[in-house]
Amino acid sequence: MSRVAGRTDWAEEEDEDSLQLPQQTITKNKDGTETIVTYSIREDGKKVKTTRRIKKTTIKTIVNPRVAERKHWAKFGLEKGKPAGPQTDTTSVAENILFRPMAGWKATTEDKSEEAKKKNSLKDAKIKCRICSGDHWTTKCPFKDTMAPEGVDSAADMKDDVPETGALGGGGSSYVPPHLRGRGGAGEKMGGKFERDDLATLRVTNVSEFAEEQELRELFGRFGHVTRVFLAKDRETNRAKGFAFVSFADRSDAAKACEKMDGYGLHHLILRVEFAKKAN
Amino acid sequence: MRPILLSGHERALTQVKYSPDGDIIFSVSKDHVVCAWFSHNGERLGTYHGHQGALWTVDVDPTSTLLATGGADNTMRLWKVETGELLMTWDFPTAVKRVEFSPDGRQLLGVTEKRSGHLGTIVVFDINPDPAAKQSKEHSLRIVCEDSKATVAGFSYLARYIIAGHEDGSVSQFDAKTGELLFNTQAHEEDMQVTDLQWSQDRTYFITASKDKTAKILAADSLEVLKTYTADTPLNSAAITPVKDYVILGGGQAAMDVTTTSARQGKFEARFYHKIFQEEIGRVRGHFGPLNYVAVHPAGTGYCSGGEDGYVRVHHFDKPYFDFMYEVEREYAQAQAQANL
């Protein structure tokens, strides 16, 4: 044990080291900010280095002299002898409130904001539709009847051979109740009258992110009666995601549109139009 | 908008007031203590001790040197704002429900409760604005409300009239010199108490809040109802905002029913109405109980509300509040700007 006199135990040595904290250093940066580095020991005994960069700005305001004088009044009563500045036991800052006056305000708008809040909280959950990659549940997808889920094309192709595997939600392995087996799995199609004509739906890709649904409707409306236009939009930015679905009432119109519009230049991009893949 | 939460009181707030410069907020609650706060950061300047009962009302004189309070201990007291020193105590047979200084600060009125054989009264005292001076013990004027007790009262412009709101929903106008009843009008619904009366900046008109779920702006001269704001809950307070043409209403379910309702149903929000168009333009929530009083910063930069939940919430308005305009207002502003070019 070749230790220096006084240091007999390794544990002691360590203790001494942690007690020697470097001094706080303040460096002035070129851009007028200050960097303050402080060291401290946390409750769990670990040494912490804190680096803060502070920019000091002097704000000058002209105040009423009476008000300025009152600011220097000594505190009295329960506050007597307390230091300047708000005390944490009596003063706190509440959460931020968004207050935007608007004409025609109604109590219902309040409820809507609540709904929006709920949506926001769901946002973090990363919802992604397996059919159109939109940010909704697959079951809520407007194309669940017409489109196959992404990446399960092969499963969709196979459905003629193995009708049992045709799934409700699109996942190939999910359970299908016996009374729905043999119907191609399209349980939700039982409504009948809501059945969409998958044959007359076009998938438009390479759409500019500034495109509007109305714009597409007008564009495709030239070829026949457009029953539905869906432009996938990003929830946060509200910009188009780059693809859309256009449904026609008549398949021949759709075919014509597909032929004419494929390669059409919209904004700065060239559209790619094809028939949407059929749902299983 | 990030409200500052002032939690210096242990019981329900009854009134909050800004000083005329807007830098200090005075708050009184049922816990016997008066608090003074700096409005810009919520720092408590001090507390005023001496009352033996719940406090109902507070007012500060135009120079922010004297503070008057009234409470359920049947006293009205005068304090030195700076030090919290008690300068004067007036005793009454019943509780003091409302105090207010005249615009020049040389008169102080108090509204006393009707109880145990005593009729409700409005008393006026002459005040010496010097805190060191001795205040007169005797009232200079006493108005007895024989029909229905007054719940709120205030001085009009130049202290010409005393306007009082009554328990039966009526508003009356007294001559501030003689105490003679000049005019009485049933402004609110019958037997729906007038809960608050606050003045416009020039004191030529005022807003009353009532349990009949409406607030009304009346002219001080004629007591003519100029505007009506209809809410869906009993109102405890109403204030007129300077700078922007809004009014703020505060209220909510009666305090005794609060525990049976959730905060959402309780309608414990400050409601903003457009003063001219009488239309609701927004709400600010935050309190867990009814709002007992709303007060507006004299410069129109913020407001604070005192709630049954024992909190004072101080709000500093942000940009959208000042930017908001109705289409017609915007057009008018544009036309004005062009005319000036």
In brief:
The complex is a heterodimer of chains A (280) and B (341). With 280 residues, chain A is α+β, with helices and mostly antiparallel strands. In chain A, 21% of the residues lie in helices and 19% in strands.
List the helices and strands and how they pair.
The complex is a heterodimer of chains A (280) and B (341).
Chain A: H1 10-19, E1 25-28, E2 34-41, E3 47-54, H2 65-71, E4 91-93, H3 107-123, H4 153-157, E5 201-205, H5 213-221, E6 226-233, E7 240-248, H6 251-261, E8 265-266, E9 269-270, E10 272-275
Antiparallel strand pairs in A: 1-2, 2-3, 5-7, 5-10, 6-7, 8-9
Chain B: E1 4-6, E2 13-18, E3 24-29, E4 34-38, E5 44-48, E6 55-60, E7 66-71, E8 75-80, E9 86-91, E10 96-101, E11 107-112, E12 120-126, E13 141-145, E14 150-155, E15 161-166, E16 171-175, E17 181-185, E18 194-199, E19 205-210, E20 214-219, E21 225-230, E22 235-240, E23 246-251, E24 270-274, E25 280-284, E26 291-296, E27 302-307, E28 312-316, H1 319-323, H2 327-340
Antiparallel strand pairs in B: 1-28, 2-3, 3-4, 4-5, 6-7, 7-8, 8-9, 10-11, 11-12, 12-13, 14-15, 15-16, 16-17, 18-19, 19-20, 20-21, 22-23, 23-24, 24-25, 26-27, 27-28
GO cellular component, one term (chain B): eukaryotic 48S preinitiation complex
GO molecular function (chain B): RNA binding; translation initiation factor activity
InterPro entries (chain B): eIF3i, WD40/YVTN_repeat-like_dom_sf, WD40_repeat_dom_sf, WD40_rpt
Task: Name the descriptors.
heterodimer; A: 280 residues; alpha+beta; Alpha-Beta Plaits; four-stranded antiparallel beta sheet; three-stranded antiparallel beta sheet; 10 strands; 21% helix; elongated; B: 341 residues; mainly beta; Methylamine Dehydrogenase, Chain H; 46% strand; eIF3G_RRM (chain A); initiation factor (chain A); cytoplasm (chain A); RNA binding (chain A)
